[in-house]
Amino acid sequence: MRKEYTKIRKIESSMIEIEKVTDVAYKAVVSVHALGMDFVGQVVKIDDDTVTIEVFGNTEEFSLNDIVVSFHEKPLEIPLDESILGRSFNGIGEPIDNGGDIYSDDKYSVEGLPLNPVAREYPRDFIQTGISSIDTLTTLIRGQKLPIFSGSGLLHNEIAAQIVRQAKLKTDENFCFVFAAMGIKKDEAMFFEDAFNKAGVRDKVVMYQNLADSPIMERLVAPKCALTAAEYLAYKRGYHVLVIVTDMTSYSEALREVSSIRGEVPSRKGYPGYLYSDLASLYERAGMIRGVKGSVTLIPILTMPNDDITHPVADLTGYITEGQIVIDRSLSNKGIYPPINVLPSLSRLMKDGIGEGYTRADHEDLMNQLYESYSKVQDVRNISQIVGEDDLSDVDKKYLRFGDEFERRFLAQDKDENRELDESLDLGWEILKILPRNELHRVSKENLDKFIGE
């Protein structure tokens, strides 16, 4: 029989301090009875015999004299089996779709199990998203963690939904999705539900939703529940799982708020000093294990305040992950969708997952040349603003035309347009024909003869 404690010292926001507590483990699950209801919490601090717990619920009406707390000897766990596919849950793994509870003898800690670095398999096989700018220039590799850097009001939700609708592997292996949303509004949640239903992929998607009016503590657990479900499907059931988590900035702001309530010393912009290790504990759960069939691929989405890529959340995410896809406001203002700026975007693992045997032999040459040529377009545009387009050389005018065609035809595509990789590669070569052959410095003679001609 578990001990029950009623000696409450303090209640502040979602935090409860309890005195004279012994034999309690850090991160242990806590049952809290108050207001005639039962709540779930977690131990977050132990100071001698004083324990601080975080409650996954609204504690505004709690009274010091009307709380009963009991501690479990385990971390937060969620029941999992294959029936979670097609289901929706809240931030702590409770069903919210009227589909009933998940009945399973197997329960898994949301903290996950650390992967042995020696057991990790190097990712190589690419995932086709149907979006030319991603497939051709920032190729997503199975087992990779590749974030999307966006800004407030930009179309990252639409891009995330399109990736879920269109993503596929080269083979017919089991492929599914786990989608986690933190701090989103109700209409955003309905947008994702509707998008997945209309695309006919809802039965392959597991959704974890923490709405903006939900308890802030739930926001910190939602991505852990999602990644735990992904690990189960990947390593226990053999699925290749693509996890999309939005918005990591909301998650980090919740972490900052909770850190402030705890009275911890703040670091950059008020975020806790352990923000790096906390984000890494989530991102590093993606990957592949040698000898295990499944894989976990992670696309975290974050909105950069004031579009500042040096903001702590974006800055630290860039250090931990293997590249980034950058959503650009100026491209969005031009009406280009998806507004992906390919110049600051990169995929650090794509070099080993493209080319002969993976995508197509000419992929790397095309990628390098498109980067170089589009970079030159930016220089020419800056010069034309000073001297005027009429005074540019004939070659520079061709670069301007190339830039316009590249943005209008290659970067831009409809929200339901699913381009095959070969189609994207062929389109890239077609647009490169605008430039003189002697300007294509990053292409082999063999590919010049094959795709550009004399």
TrEMBL record:
InterPro entries: ATP-synt_VA_C, ATPase_a/bsu_AS, ATPase_F1/V1/A1_a/bsu_nucl-bd, P-loop_NTPase, V-ATPase_su_B/beta
UniProt-listed Pfam families: ATP-synt_ab, ATP-synt_VA_C
Ranges of residues in domain ATPase F1/V1/A1 complex alpha/beta subunit nucleotide-binding: 130-347
Keyword DNA repair (UniProt): no
Domain ATP synthase A/B type C-terminal: 352-451
A biological-process GO annotation: proton motive force-driven plasma membrane ATP synthesis
UniProt keyword annotations, A-Z: ATP synthesis, Hydrogen ion transport, Ion transport, Transport
Domain of life: Bacteria
UniProt keyword Transport, yes or no: yes
GO molecular function, one term: ATP binding
Family recorded in the similarity comment: Belongs to the ATPase alpha/beta chains family.
NCBIfam families named in the record: PRK04196.1
Purpose of the protein: Produces ATP from ADP in the presence of a proton gradient across the membrane. The V-type beta chain is a regulatory subunit.
Database matches in HAMAP family: ATP_synth_B_arch (MF_00310)
Name of the molecule in the record: V-type ATP synthase beta chain
Organism: Anaerococcus prevotii (strain ATCC 9321 / DSM 20548 / JCM 6508 / NCTC 11806 / PC1) (Peptostreptococcus prevotii)
